Amino acid sequence: xxxxxxxxxxxxxVAAVDGALPAELGGPGSxxxxxxxxxxxxxxxxxxxxxxxxxxxxxxxxxxVTCPHFYRLHEEPYDFWRPTLHAIGHHARINGLAxxxxxxxxxxxxxLGTLLASCPAVPHRPGLRFRLGSKIVNxxxxxxxxxxxxxxxxxxxxxxxxxxxxxxxxxxx
Length: 173
Fold this sequence. Notes:
The chain is an alpha+beta fold. The protein contains 5 helices and 4 strands; from the N terminus they run E-H-E-H-E-H-H-H-E. The protein has a 4-stranded mixed β-sheet with strand order 1-2-4-3.
């Protein structure tokens, strides 16, 4: 299921997870397992989405959710949230889903690497000084990113307190 069809026509059901559930999904309790990966940050109505996902699961069925905790804006204007494990757990509990397992994936170094890889510097204003400045910043960004890829800063220090992504396995009671 996806909100748009692919050029290869590989989506079986075109629908929004926070909208009305189409009949071709089979109705309540139709699934033993649902994979919802990198979707929920694009869903405006979490209450409806979690209600739908819980409805589609049979009792004892499992839902695997992944979503970023840190990432640049993408697929705008349909980029709404950067949830925590607490938000996922809250919406799960309201809909009769129990957290079977949850994990915060990545650390501060992964967050920094993601930022460096996805945010190139651009000149602030026209002019040679600003173009040169952005080139210097981008060169420094590339050097630091290369060091991160080799694992050098990670050997010297930890960056606790932030993480990259959520992975949560939920089970319907």
